[in-house]
Specification:
Blueprint lengths: L6 E5 L4 H12 L3 E6 L2 H11 L4 E5 L5 H14 L3 E6 L14 H22 L3 E10 L12 H21 L5 E7 L5 H6 L2 H9 L9 H12 L10 E4 L3 H5 L2
Parallel strand pairs: 1-2, 1-4, 2-3, 4-5, 5-6, 6-7
The protein binds NADP nicotinamide-adenine-dinucleotide phosphate.
The site of NADP nicotinamide-adenine-dinucleotide phosphate (NAP) has 31 residues, from helix 1, strand 2 and helix 6.
Family: Belongs to the short-chain dehydrogenases/reductases (SDR) family.
Keywords: NADP, Oxidoreductase
InterPro entries: KR_dom, NAD(P)-bd_dom_sf, SDR_fam, Sec_Metab_Biosynth_SDR
Length: 247
Amino acid sequence: MDFTNKNVVITGGTTGIGLATAKAFIAAGANVWITGRKAENLQKAAAQINSPKLFSVVSDTSKTEGISVLEKAVAGGGQKLDVLFLNAGIGMFEPMEQVTEENFDAQFNTNVKGHFFTLQKLLPYLADGAAVLFTSSTAATAANAGSLVYSATKGALNKIAQIAANELAGRKIRVNIVSPGPIATPGLDTVVPADAQVYLAGATALQRLGDPDEVAKTVLFLASDAASFITGTEIVVDGGYLNYALK
Ligand SMILES: NC(=O)c1ccc[n+]([C@@H]2O[C@H](COP(=O)([O-])OP(=O)(O)OC[C@H]3O[C@@H](n4cnc5c(N)ncnc54)[C@H](OP(=O)(O)O)[C@@H]3O)[C@@H](O)[C@H]2O)c1
């Protein structure tokens, strides 16, 4: 796919799915801005990608000040955005009795509030005909015990994406959702112990974890002209996890 000189912003682009997607867009010729909370992680990502077409912005998406930093960086660039990939996310898995207000707020602020206000603040900088992608999760559809708050954030995100697709259609901006199943990322390693990862792999029809590159390919497809009649919908990239779990 060709994204030569297209301008792409990826929130949460330092590791995992965001980093894989940044690499794929750079390989396809795009100029890519990645965000994350930590300068050190952004530097590591930049060293891996090693391209003059990659730019990084320290921006905590869970805070309005962080979103303003990204908005200023985009405004300062003076170019319209062709792709906005809202991908930053955190998950905390625990039974409902153990959910604290702090954990609840952290997940909703990052996974829901942050994405909504990033989209709202960057709307003036989106080119007409741009593509907006959200990273949701199979957790939005599944109802696994212990994932109550995380799943609720992703369910809320799906609804934001669906309605944004309708509100932005007049500008020919397409808005879609990519919902990964279990994908081998640093984020998964942080929240899912090794034995539970083996269980998750066995809960997919393809009997393995996904690779972040496999999610990236779907993001590039949805961002491309090949998906010109696709908006307001979700593509699940889960090795058959949802279907297999319900068999
Ligand atoms: N891996 C899976 O199995 C899986 C499955 C379904 C959905 N997802 C979703 O996929 C997305 C990416 O996850 P991943 O698995 O690739 O995890 P990851 O490796 O932990 O990557 C998460 C990214 O988000 C960034 N981030 C986290 N909080 C942020 C904040 N407040 N502001 C800005 N950036 C922030 C992180 O950067 P810093 O740490 O540098 O801030 C990092 O770049 C998430 O939305 C996650 O919910 C993952």
